[in-house]
Amino acid sequence: MNGTWKDIDKLEKDLWEAADNLRANSKLTSNDYFMPVLGVIFLRHAANRFAAAQKQIEEDQAAGRMPKRKVIPQDYVRRRSLWLPSEARYDWIMEQAATRAADLPALVTAAMHAIEASFQPLLGVLPKDYGIFAPKVLEDLMRLFNSEQIRNASGDVFGRIYEYFLAEFSMQKAHDNGEFFTPSSIVQTIVNVIEPDHGTVFDPACGSGGMFVQSSHFIEHEGADTAKRVVFYGQEKNPDTIRIARMNLAVHGLEGKIAEAITYYQDEHTLAGKCDFVMANPPFNVDLVDAERVKSDPRLPFGLPGVNNKKKVSNGNYLWISYFWSYLNEQGRAGFVMSSQASSAGHGEKQVRRKIVETGDVDMMLAIRGNFFYTRAVPCELWFFDRGKPAERKDKVLMLDARGIYRKVTRKIYDFSPEQMKNIAAIVWLHRGQRDRFLRLIDDYFWSLGEECALVGPMLERFEASLESIANRPDVDKESDALAVAATELQDARAAYVGDRARLLAAIECFRNVHAEVRVRTNEAQHAARAEFDPIAESLRGLIKQVDLLYKLASRLVDRIGETAEGKVQADRRVLSRGIRQLDDDRKAAVEQLKAAAYVHRHIVWLQERFPHAELRDVAGLVKLVDRHEIEAADWSLTPGRFAGVAPPEEDDEIDFEQAMRDIHLELGDLNDEAAQLANKIQHNFAELGA
Predict the structure, then answer these.
(1) Could you write out the three-class secondary structure of 398-416?
(2) For 137-281, where are the E strands, in sequence order?
(3) Helix (H) / strand (E) containing 625
(4) Which of 101, 352, 403, 569 has the fewest CB atoms in 10 Å of its CB?
(5) What is the pLDDT of residue 658?
(6) Where are the alpha helices (DSSP H) in 314-455?
(7) C-alpha dihedral over 350, 356, 361, 364, to 10 degrees?
């Protein structure tokens, strides 16, 4: 948990705030601004990829890996880059803007036309309505994405920036009520379970194409080439959303065959029974599907779930569920988001659900708490089919209630952390008998634990150096009673800290010497290693409190120095102020590093306590493996919480104070932001009334 991702989080937020501020000042609506902003991000990313491919081509030619001939566009495509005509290159556009600022909207529009002309899959896709911008507003937006940090950003960073902007626009309900975007942690969880690493991958409600992007990340993480392993197919009813999807694929260096179609009535790619993987986040609870048009659809082998008196399918959820099953080949897997109501719905829906359960292809049900989506707060469930399940699991379904697994992103939005997603995947591995993968994950955690612990000492040294500059100032008048008390308190706390810090670092060094280089050990050895680290984890948490205390005492000492500055002490208050700010920065860095090590340890504990033998077992409130008879006895319900039960109360009732404080600060920050936005809106409205 080094600073890289935290830096990216800050970069994303800063870019969004700056871009959104430009929108506010331009009097454009989010709908106006949405596609052009994504177009600028696309243009910048295309330029970065082009530069990287150009450098690689030059290196390959110099090393003899490529003949020294005229470079052609296909050379760039092979390196996951678009070939860019000169008039579509970001640097050239910005150079022109320096002398022809008024022409910038036309220059950007021309760049989009040039890219489409040179790359057929993007024909008619890229935004070209840059004339809506005042030239100065567009120039500011372009410069925002032309900083040195952005020019040097990798593809992963740009993918995240693009996704972040999609999410933010979704929260503003800027397009189609936000339904084009599925949060990445939901998508990645689906990908982690079905593992789409070959063949035909289909999303019949593909939205912005996030399922394809996350599938590509999974394939490349496994060391394979996406273009050689899978073919992406999608269907989407909204033509503007299809444009977003194609841009999203292109910004990640991917291609897909996406058709404009209403999946209830159309199978444009004729993929029924042919897909290796199906994944989707379809619209929930639709009640307008024409029953007469779909009643004979071969993709609905389990029949209609019910028809109302208007001859409409009473609820479209089970149409989607049937489609997903029907699109799979005999070894195919599917993962999809569904309303939590569907898993226990009655009447005709229950009959369809019963037939699907009786196929033996329902592999897993995963319950997710509310607030994971940007435009709806209700809980949902992930369904997973596996038509290639081995005989011993054919009539069994893994019920996983993950409603207690989440982290807060904002006051209103939750997601899964990367580690939480790995832990959920680890439970699935045990379900499939892949014990070695479970042990490898824990061993990866041990490796990360060693890496995080190695950084504890240097971070503490920085904090101690800053503390030293305050605690041992030569101009501190110890004859002042108040000053003497403050100095003594700090000195005593430092003495206790020094001893505890020395013992902690010695224990860390000993642990790393024994365990740092060991990989993929036995379950027993992993438990022994964790037992060795348990007291170190306690010491990490204890030292966090000591570091915070030292900062508070140092701040108090600085206050006392300031109070006596007009007397005998002649302290430079600006120097003291800078010193305490530096100490606070170094305190935060040290505390974050101590927490990072404790955080990795906590995930080892989480897995080992629930699955001590590295084998799947029932865990109350979390997971239960059920058979068809249990499902039948539960009226064919597939609701995970109904089977997993309720977790017993924790024996240790000590709350996670640090997490509670983080959540409080998060909520307070969001409330302050909302208050500021509301105040600005009120001020703007009053200004318009007075105009």
Answers:
(1) EEEECCCCCEECCCCCEEC
(2) 199-203, 230-236, 257-260, 275-280
(3) strand 623-627
(4) 101
(5) 54
(6) 317-327, 347-358, 418-431, 435-454
(7) -20
pLDDT-derived band at 690, boundaries 50, 70, 90? low
Looking only at the bridges linking them, the beta strands covering 275-280 and 623-627 are: unpaired
Distance from CA of residue 225 to its chain's centroid?
Answer: 22
CA nearest to 508, candidates 634, 600, 580 = 600
The whole-chain average pLDDT of the chain stands at: 87
Spacing of C-alpha 200 from chain mean position: 25
Q: What is the dihedral of CA 357, 361, 367, 368, to 10 degrees?
A: -140
Q: State residue 389 phi and psi, 5-degree precision.
A: -60, 140
pLDDT digits (tens, 9 = 90+) for 6-48: 566 777 888 888 888 777 777 777 777 888 888 998 899 889 8
Q: Residue 5 in contact with residue 13, Cβ under 8 Å?
A: no
Length of the chain: 691
- Calpha distance 621→649 (Å, rounded): 10
Q: Distance of CA 566 to CAs 477, 572, 573, 587, Å?
A: 12, 11, 11, 29
Query: How far, in Å, CA of 20 to CA of 377, rounded?
Result: 24
Instruction: Find, among 447, 373, 459, 461, the residue nearest to 412 by Cα.
Output: 373
Give residue 313's pLDDT band: very low, low, confident or very high (50, 70, 90): very high
> 3-state DSSP call for residue 279?
strand
Q: What are the tens digits of pLDDT across the range 85-98? A: 999 999 999 999 88
Full DSSP string of 214-226: HHHHHHHHTT--H
Of 487 and 303, the structure prediction assigns the larger pLDDT to 303
Q: Which amino acid is at 108?
A: V
What pLDDT digit, counting tens, does each position of 158-207 carry?
A: 667 777 787 777 666 544 444 557 888 999 999 999 999 999 999 999 98
- DSSP string across 112-166: HHHHHHH-GGGTTTS---GGGS-HHHHHHHHHHTTSHHHHT--HHHHHHHHHHHH
